[in-house]
Amino acid sequence: MENGTETTDIIIVGYPKSGNTWITRLVAELVGCPVVGFLNSDHHEIAREGLERESNFRCYKSHHQVYELDEIDIKSKKIIYVLRDPRDICLSGSAYFVIERWPFLGRLFSDYPKMYRIYKGINKLIISRSKYRIKRMAEAIIYGSREVHWWVRVSWAAHYKPYLEKNTFFVKYEDLLSNTKEECERIIDFLGIQRTDAQINAAIEKQSFKNKKKEFLKKGQQKKANFLRTGRKEQWREGLPLQQKKMFEEMLNTELIQFGYPTEKE
Length: 266
Fold this sequence. Notes:
By secondary structure, the protein is α/β, with parallel strands linked by helices.
C-alpha cells in the first residue's frame, strides 16, 4: 500500500443468500485486497479472508439497505450490488435461516449453546420441515419478515430498487456463473484497476465453488464448505413447490421479466 493513499472500501451488497459471500471473495481475489468482514459489524464474518494482503482497497460484505449505507461514515467507497433470482434466494434462505414454527421454543434454549444446536436440528427435521420453511421464506422475500431474520425485514424488491434508482453498479449472480470472465472484466473496469487475462483466470479458478470447497474441507473447515452449497442457478425449477412458483410469478412478474429471469413455462 502506498503511503498517504486513501483506502477505498469496496462494498458487496445484496439481499441475503444472493451469492454475496462468493462474490465478495472473488472481487477481493481479483483486486488482491483483504475481505475485512461484514460492514459495520464485529461479528465473525464467514467471507473474511486474505487479511495479510496489502492494498489500497479492502472488501466488505453487506446486506444493508441503501439508506443505512448512507448513514455509515465511509470516506471512499465503491458499491457493487448483487442481484439474484428471488426464487433461488428462497430455496437457499429456507435451508440457511432458522425458520421456526414456534419461536418461543428457540428462546427457551438460546442461553444454552449445546441445547440450542440440538433444538435447531429437531426444528429443521421435525417441527419446521422444508415445505414450511420455503413458504415462510417466500413470504419474507415478497413482503419482508423480521421474524425470519433481521436482514429480510424488507422485501427483495424494496431492497434492490433504491440501489437501482441511484445507478449503483449491478452484477447478476447468474451472469457471473455463466460468463464469469466477462463479468470480472466489468467489475475491474468499474473499480478502475487493470488485470491481465492470466490474473483474472487465476482468481476465478481459486474462488470457484469446487476449489473453494476442497480448500475448506482440506483445512477441516466444514462450516465454511457447507455454507457454499452448490452455487447452481435455477434450482427453483425442481426445489420450489408449485404454490410458491405461482406466487413468485404472480407477485414479481414485472421484475422477473425486467431482469430476464425465466418462468416455469420457458
